[in-house]
């Protein structure tokens, strides 16, 4: 199991997720690979264009969050 569900003591309606040791091991093993992939994907894009890309992705993400409430 990669995550465990925990009830929050103050409010039983709230469920918390926590990585298990196995989940931490998976993140630790895959994170460097993901960072390298991201570096390769952004290779050749200058800083200004990366900032524009980041702003556009944040905008899309915000729209997706609003859309998920429909």
Give a brief rundown of this model:
This protein has 2 helices and 2 strands, in the order E-E-H-H. The protein is α+β, with helices and mostly antiparallel strands and 70 residues long.
Describe the structure.
- By secondary structure, this protein is α+β, with helices and mostly antiparallel strands.
- It has one domain (3-67).
- It contains 2 helices and 2 strands.
- It has helices spanning 21-42, 47-67; strands at residues 3-8, 11-19.
- A two-stranded antiparallel ribbon has the order 1-2.
- A hairpin with a 2-residue loop joins strand 1 (3-8) and strand 2.
- The model has no long low-confidence stretch (mean pLDDT 93).
Could you list some keywords that capture this structure?
single chain; about 70 residues; alpha+beta; two-stranded antiparallel ribbon; 2 helices; 2 strands
Low-confidence stretches: none
Largest sheet: 2 strands, antiparallel
Structural class: alpha+beta
Between the first and last Cα atoms, what is the distance in angstroms? 32 Å
Instruction: Quickly count the domains.
Output: 1
List the SSEs and their pairings:
Layout: E1 3-8, E2 11-19, H1 21-42, H2 47-67
Antiparallel strand pairs: 1-2
């Amino acid at each position: 199991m990669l995550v465990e569900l925990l009830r929050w003591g103050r409010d039983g309606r709230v469920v918390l997720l926590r990585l298990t040791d196995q989940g931490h091991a998976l993140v630790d093993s895959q994170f460097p690979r993901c960072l390298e992939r991201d570096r390769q994907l952004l290779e050749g894009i200058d800083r200004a264009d990366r900032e524009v890309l980041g702003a556009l992705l944040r905008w899309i993400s915000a729209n997706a969050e609003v859309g998920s409430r429909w």
